[in-house]
């Protein structure tokens, strides 16, 4: 982990009505592993600092970082980063942070990824790293989102180019033509993708979601010591 480094915003992309991808250029970035995150620090003219943590959405790529930022109504930092920080402006980042919730390209254990809302961001870094490495280790994603418009990386996940089965669970509003009714993740949503024996699970999302999914996985036969969780909120 490094100290605070200057990071320049070079691109902002809409993912959902309130979710953004930010691409930052960090000249002295040391690299990172899929699943890690960074702290972002903003400094006001009077010297006041505000620091928040954001997941990295892509594997290491030289001096470029890709973050997922979900704008929170009334938030002190996320609305500014999501919609107001000008292109070319500088912020500070510290990282990479986290060594438990990571996936390595040399990993041979199957990976079941379960994300809630913007909790899919670090899981996307794992999927992209697997693609870049040309890895053939089995991998599947279960993604819980309120409705179709709340799905991050919609086109990329829909393409199926990675050989990663994707199940999208809509919790509030199911699109027309989708057989599964809206509702929270169930045991059936997690079943049949990868066998519990030998599979490592990565679960990321709000605290309530992570606790619910973790309990379902354990009841489904996944050993607790093979479940890695990252929670927020």
Automatic annotation (TrEMBL):
Transmembrane segments: none annotated. Pfam families: FAD_binding_6, NAD_binding_1. Keywords: 2Fe-2S, Iron, Iron-sulfur, Metal-binding. PROSITE patterns: FAD_FR (PS51384). The keyword Transport does not apply. PANTHER family: NADH OXIDOREDUCTASE HCR, PROTEIN RFBI. This is Ferredoxin reductase. It comes from Streptomyces broussonetiae.
């Amino acid at each position: 982990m490094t100290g605070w480094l200057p990071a320049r915003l070079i691109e902002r992309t809409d993912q959902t009505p309130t979710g953004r991808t930010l691409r930052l250029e960090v000249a002295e970035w040391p690299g990172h592993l899929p699943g890690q995150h960074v702290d972002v620090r903003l400094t006001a003219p009077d010297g006041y600092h505000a620091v928040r943590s954001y997941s990295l959405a892509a594997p290491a790529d030289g001096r470029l970082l890709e973050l997922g930022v979900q704008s929170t109504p009334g938030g002190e930092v996320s609305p500014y980063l999501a919609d107001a920080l000008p292109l070319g402006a500088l912020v500070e980042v510290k990282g990479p942070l986290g060594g438990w919730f990571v996936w390595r390209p040399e990993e041979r254990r199957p990976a079941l990824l379960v994300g809630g809302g913007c909790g899919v961001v670090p899981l996307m870094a794992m999927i992209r790293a697997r693609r870049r490495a040309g890895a053939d280790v089995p991998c599947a994603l279960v993604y819980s989102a309120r409705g179709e418009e709340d799905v991050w990386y919609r086109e990329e996940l829909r393409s199926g180019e990675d050989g990663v089965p994707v199940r999208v669970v809509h919790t509030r509003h199911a699109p027309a033509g989708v057989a599964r009714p809206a509702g929270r993740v169930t045991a059936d949503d997690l079943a049949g993708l990868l066998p519990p024996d030998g599979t490592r699970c990565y679960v990321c999302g709000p605290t309530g979601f992570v606790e619910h999914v973790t309990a379902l996985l354990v009841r489904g036969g996944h050993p607790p010591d093979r479940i890695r969780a990252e929670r927020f909120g």
